[in-house]
Description:
Low-confidence stretches: none
Shape: globular
Distance between the termini: 29 Å
Number of helices: 9
Largest sheet: 5 strands, antiparallel
Order of helices and strands: EEHEEEEEHHEEEEHEHHEEHEEHEEEHE
Strand order of the largest sheet: 6-7-12-10-11
Amino acid sequence: MLPTLHEQFPLREFNTFGVEARARWFCRVHSAEELAALAAEPKLAGLPRLVLGGGSNVLLTRDFDGLVIRVEVPGLRELGDVEGTWHVEVGAGENWHATVERLLAMGRPGLENLALIPGNCGAAPIQNIGAYGLELAERFASLSAWDFESQQVVRMSTAECDFGYRDSVFKHALAGRRVILSVTLALPKQWRPVSGYADVAHELKARGIARPTARDIFDVVVAIRRRKLPDPAAIGNAGSFFKNPIVTRDEHRALIAHHPSLVGYPLPGGRVKLAAAWLIDAAGLKGATRGRAGVYEKQALVLVNRGGATGSEILTLAREVQDKVQEKFGIRLEPEPVIV
């Protein structure tokens, strides 16, 4: 059945930056059958497609002259014990944070470090979301997706998703071709806290918690994020706008020689992940305002819509941040959101 198509549809309520933009065509989909009907609709033939979930990882800089598909596939069901993990299938349209909290209440911990990340479950593999020492890839089993080319539902493994740091095959070879319908998570039966990340460790110590439960980790992560990050309902933003850059040991050593207070985190293989927020702050841009766009004063990694900003204004500010950080440190920051 063909979902209802809306022409020249306003997208302000469907992106967390809250910027004005319109879609030539817009629809909500709840199933693979509806996606199949879209593929067969003559007036949509050849048009570019943009898939939206919660709209928390996109910056719209213009109207979209194509089809915007809002994925609202519901559902959550347990699939049982598989090789020492609980497998749970979640519909792509389910809210991510609400799902993390629901699973915790069901006695299925393992995602608590990823609490309060905005957006829906279908977007989680696209971005390979991560925070406070954990990435989705570590709790991922498989996903189902609709393939517009083969006109069928396909199942994809971890290897086929080609996860990287805030990256996956859906940002590259499969961009616009496959729409995620559901995600199957693998949650550890033998749960252990992931509490080594500095912010989490400090917050646990401040609360006097030596042996944290999953709920403790959840509460700590939520508290940290609420202190640092603005609520999109109050001030438009897409969370962290830039990836933390990764450099070699030699590059890190050279940077430290000139900037002794540089914040970095060792990675396997001798590489070092640098704190992009520190770089932006050191470049003098924390709290900066350019017209109606700004760098958030509590967390330099976040760009905000201070009221009525266009996507182009926010993008201009993002490029200024990139230019100034590169000028000072020789590092080009890479945006996290999809820029349309």
